Amino acid sequence: MKKTLLFVLIVFLILILGGLWYRSCSKINIQKRREMSVREVPGIVLNPLTESAFRLNEYPYDSFLIILLFSRECDFCLYELEELKRHHPFLHEASIFLVSFDPVPSLRQFEMDFRSVDFPGMCLCHCPYDSLVKHFGKLSVPDLYIYAQNGTLIEHFCGATRMDAILGVLEEHSFIQ
Q: What pLDDT is attached to residue 33?
């Protein structure tokens, strides 16, 4: 009886440890796949407030691409948006997509307040939260991605980032002088 109980207990522990190991490996693989999916411009569908929806990886851009994932409720995001707005003359060749999962009516009000339409090359877009998570992984806003003209990821900034760091990356890759 004791041997049978000990055997069942050992098998039970092996099964639990095996399940935990499998679960951790699958989470690591999911994260690696997501990291791989952002190494090139993702094929996420964006819904601009003023145009029809399009797939981002099919969008034609001339120089480099900046994607800023943000929420209008986030103070750090608003700071980063103001910095982009203030440094826009340095970014005139960029295609800049401000992407949010906030409700569309909220984004329309934000657009009127922020006046992103005054800046050529800057587009305010809505994208469902689930779609953003599917393509970018766990979201923490602000999240800023810079892609080269060939569509490869140059830099990813997670969290509030000083504009001089962003401009430094752009200078390093000869996108700005």
A: 47
State residue 90 phi and psi, 5-degree precision: -80, -20
Does residue 55 contact residue 44 with C-beta atoms inside 8 Å? yes
d(CA 170, CA 88): 13
Q: Which residues, at least 6 apart from 164, have a Cβ–Cβ distance to it below 8 Å? A: none
Closest C-alpha to 86, from 119, 117, 108, 62: 119
Check if the beta carbon of residue 41 is closer than 8 Å to that of residue 57. yes
Phi, psi (deg, nearest 5) at residue 122: -110, 130
In DSSP notation, the chain reads -HHHHHHHHHHHHHHHHHHHHHHHHHHHHHHHHHHHHTSB----EEEESSS--EEGGG---SS-EEEEEE-TT-HHHHHHHHHHHHTGGGGTT-EEEEEE-S-HHHHHHHHHHH-GGGSTTEEEEE--HHHHHHHH-S--SSEEEEE-TTSBEEEEEES---HHHHHHHHHHTTS--
- Model pLDDT for residues 16-66, shown as the tens digit of each residue: 876 776 676 554 444 444 445 578 888 899 999 888 899 988 888 778 899
Q: Any idea how long the chain is?
A: 177
